[in-house]
Write a structure and sequence with these properties.
This protein is of the alpha+beta class and 107 residues long. The chain has one domain: Nucleoid-associated protein YbaB-like domain (Ybab, Chain: A, 2-Layer Sandwich), CATH 3.30.1310.10. It has a three-stranded antiparallel β-sheet. A hairpin with a 4-residue loop joins strand 2 and strand 3. It is rod-shaped, with a radius of gyration of 19 Å.
Length: 107
């Protein structure tokens, strides 16, 4: 039963670390861009958009469809970077242990 107590303490510590990481992710930001930097998007580590920058030369009645495409690409770029950041943080926290299949962050 000694091992069970030790495992429970480890699980509790990991849960505390996960809660701390969740708070950190909310404050971390990643930037994504598209169109050679003409459109830039900033997301938190939890995937919440906090900023969008559009080069003024992109704004015109004939540029709407291209601007929409660039916004989607920039958001996806930032989201991909945020996912990499989350995986790196998770790896640091777990010492390289992988999450069970189907379990992903952020929760």
């Amino acid at each position: 039963m000694k091992n069970l107590g030790s495992m429970m303490k480890q699980a509790q510590k990991m849960q505390e670390n996960m809660q701390k990481m969740q708070a950190e992710l909310e404050n971390m930001e990643v930037d994504g861009s598209a169109g050679g930097g003409m459109v830039k998007v900033t997301l938190t580590g939890k995937g919440r958009a906090t900023n969008i920058k559009i080069d003024p030369s992109m704004i015109g009645p004939d540029d709407v469809e291209m601007l929409e495409d660039l916004l989607v690409a920039a958001i996806n770029d930032a989201k991909d970077k945020a996912e990499v950041m989350v995986k790196e943080k998770m790896s640091e926290m777990t010492g390289g242990l992988q999450l069970p299949p189907g379990m992903e962050l952020p929760f």
